[in-house]
Amino acid sequence: MSALLIAEHNNKEIKPFTLNAITAASQIDQDLHVLVIGHSCEAVVKSISEIPNVKKVIHVDDAVYENYLPENFTPVVMKNSENYSHIICSANTFGKNLMPRIAALLDTSQVSDIIKVISADTFLRPIYAGNAFATVKSTDAKKCITIRPTSFDPAPTTGGTAEIIKAEKAEASDLTKFIKREEVKSDRPELGTARVVISGGRGMGSGDNFKLITAIADKLNAAIGASRAAVDAGYITNDHQVGQTGKVVVPDLYIAVGISGAIQHLAGMKESKIIVAINKDGEAPIFSVADYGLEADLFEALPQFLEELNKLNTIQK
Amino acid sequence: MKILVAVKRVIDYNVQVRVKEDGTGVVTDNVKMSTNPPDDNAIEEAVKIKESGKAKEVVAVTIGEDKAQETVRKALAVGADKGIHVKVDGIIEPLAVSKILQKIVEKEKPDLVFMGKQAIDDDCNQTGQMLAALLNWPQATFASKIEVKDKSLEVTREVDEGLETIETNIPSIVTCDLRLNEPRYASLPNIMKAKKKPLEQINASDLGVDTKPRIEQIKVEEPPKRKAGIKVASVEELVQKLKNEAKVI
User: Mutate which of A72, A110, A180 to test chain B, going by most B C-beta atoms within 10 A?
Assistant: First the structure.
């Protein structure tokens, strides 16, 4: 049998997390096929066919798939699922929204958010906000799996020549209408894949004060994150939230500023390679996961931090 | 309009979860339990819609052991009209939960079903989407704003890129984000009154749903611990350490 991965893309380019999911999927089954559902997305299909891990690309193109709606994508996956032992997707808001709808129709108990492939039916996944790791074995004949992208390296993107086949559209649904997407455009690296992330919490005190963080992010070419408290307080938009119900990040360097370190926040960042905590409360739980802790008032520490960075001859980008 | 809200009893979000030494799960004895946090947002939203006059009845349903009733009582205390407890012991997976909820929907005939977007114990994030599939209803997941129109909902969803707005036909499933609203607290008089509200008990086995787990839990273990870090005395020292010791900048 083979594995079928559902690609996430915007009709122009493949979304980076799909590459991480491809790595995991090819560990499950080397005969990996990728399903690309979209509209006028030939460029995406071509770039996926060049990924060496991918053996076949199935392309379903129709205006109805211009905007991603699970009510429309699910029938396409169902139509193409027959010859596969595994249906796979990334565990971000795209895959979390889509995969359970497919799993229920296949009568499969989905395995969500895996961080390691132990064998074709056994996986490691975090539970309780990452406070425990569960080894689980799926007994369903057809398995539905979502992949935590940050736990797998992105697949190489050149050198492959996978066969491309066109498949028919499925019945369109009128249950849901797409209205709009408000994307926050930024020249910064994406939060989920950035090498350096600097995050602010409730201690920032206002949205305006995030400029202290922005200045350092500019210097380090970092993505900007936030705790749920900072997003709830309206300091910054939801797409910056790191944590159990936000994004999971695993950068080389994570700098937590004015973040106390609730377990829900730690769930989103504690696998980072190096963690720095800047907080004036020396007892804050964030220090328990920090490699380098600085007990200081952030309003003094951040300008100093920028000054010290300016003194360096070189900074890694 | 009638709104069904599904609530789950989980280990309280403030509890530091500990793994059992024998690797069979996490410690739940003598641990504080409460309603799954985004399920509180789901109840709050349903009650607000009722208060605005757009819904007539809010029904809260939970699935689990006897003590799961506490979550329904809490929902009744903040404004739900009626409760349902579907009794089942042991581990129950989202697929089986959604099949049970499907039976409850067939019986109660709600126009909307709300629930939290994810339970903070198994972190599966599946049930709402699965129920939507089984009923062939639209799904509005990760909702941070819901507007009830004549025959549809306009829902703002929190997605990785930012915000997305969709319109779903009624009947519809909505899974709620923590930012949807600010759940109210139950007042003591309302807690007392809730004890008199109807709470129906159903055995899962009577619904004809197979609840046997399909996923074998082989072991549960502690995640690898981070090595203890150090405190630095100054920003200057911090930057030097990051440059020369950790070599990350």
Answer: A110
- On whether any CB of chain B is under 8 Å from the CB of A141, the answer is no
Q: Encode pLDDT of A204-213 as tens digits.
A: 999 999 999 9
Residue with tokens 């990996």: A32
Interface predicted TM-score (ipTM):
0.96
**Number of Cβ pairs closer than 8 Å across A and B?**
265
- Residue A70 three-state SS: helix
**Which of A196, A292, A305 has its CB closest to that of B241?**
A292
Whether the CB of A225 is below 8 Å from some CB of chain B: the reply is no
- Region of B60 please: left (phi>0), alpha (psi -120 to 50) or beta: beta
Query: How far is the CA of A161 from the CAs of A30, A42, A43, A155, B179, in angstroms?
Result: 15, 15, 14, 14, 45
The backbone region for A289, taken as left when phi is positive above 0, alpha when psi lies in -120 to 50, beta otherwise, is alpha
Domains of chain A and CATH, by start: 2-166 (3.40.50.620), 196-311 (3.40.50.1220)
Could you read off the pLDDT of B207-220 as tens digits, one per residue? Answer: 999 999 999 999 99
Contacts of B54 (CB under 8 A, 6+ apart): B1, B148
Running DSSP on this structure, what letter comes out for residue B19?
B
B179, A232 contact by CB (below 8 A) = yes
Given the DSSP bridges, would you call strands B33-35 and B162-169 parallel, antiparallel or unpaired? unpaired
Closest CA to B78 of B49, B37, B40: B40
Q: Give the CATH fold of the B2-223 domain.
A: Rossmann fold (3.40.50)
pTM for the full predicted model: 0.95
Q: Where are the domains of chain B?
A: 2-223
User: CB distance A132–B94 less than 8 Å?
Assistant: no
Written as six digits, the tokens of B46 are 């349903």
